[in-house]
Amino acid sequence: xxxxxxxxLGLVQGLTEFLPVSSSAHLRIVGELFPALGDPGVTFTAxxxxxxxxxxxxxxxxxxxxxxxxxxxxxxxxxxREREPEDPQDARLGWIVIIGTIPIVxxxxxxxxxxxxxxxxxxxxxxxxxxFAVFLGLADRFSKKRLTVxxxxxxxxxxxxxxxxxxxxxxxxxxxxxxxxxxxxGYTREAAARVSFLLAIPAVLGSGxxxxxxxxxxxxxxxxxxxxxxxxxxxxxxxxxxxxxxKLISTKSYFPFVIYRLLLAAVIVALLTAGVLAPQ
Length: 280
Known about the structure:
- Its EC number is 3.6.1.27.
- The protein is mostly helical and 280 residues long.
- The protein has helices spanning 3-16, 23-33, 42-59, 61-73, 88-110, 112-115, 122-142, 154-165, 174-184, 189-214, 224-249, 255-273.
């Protein structure tokens, strides 16, 4: 893989990872439409994915440090047991992130074979893009949108964790699934997005590291330079997208993303019908 191809893949990953449009669907389509990009390999995909998620860590670094400190202070054992957390809600949020990560870890391991085979069918991807576009649109239009991050409960965290696990099917979108369910639970647009990003941190980092260390090196390898370039590009672009997205939804609806998902689903079906794309 050359530097140009690495930049393209880094751009696609950074642009789509945090928006409710399914990054996995875009990477799948780009790979099909531009064969020159080839299969970058497990190591490349994992490292670039980790690089993208580090953009979230950097953006939410103060929140993350505060949550970790509060969570440690709330533990009944260890050197922190004598301290009271400054904010019990932050401590609870730490547990919510942990509990909300369990579903995608369990289901990801259990469905690993299907994820690499059945779930990669582009007809299924198009269906999920369209179906969850409708769900997102309805949730955004009719939900109450009153609750904030401070109202998040353990029950809601677990529900959002299962919502996140739906993203194991390309086309659903990790942020799209959690944001949709968050809206249905009554959270504001910004709160649903923030919780979605926080929940994704351990899931995406864990998935990336798992794929990285489970790679036996026998598959395609992109090369160190291409991997580094794509990772840096995805980090920078991902950070810019996070800033833009959170600012956008503080005043606007998710309607543009609903329309985009529907159009993308239609384009995929058209390309499949024309034989330009292969379903599997």
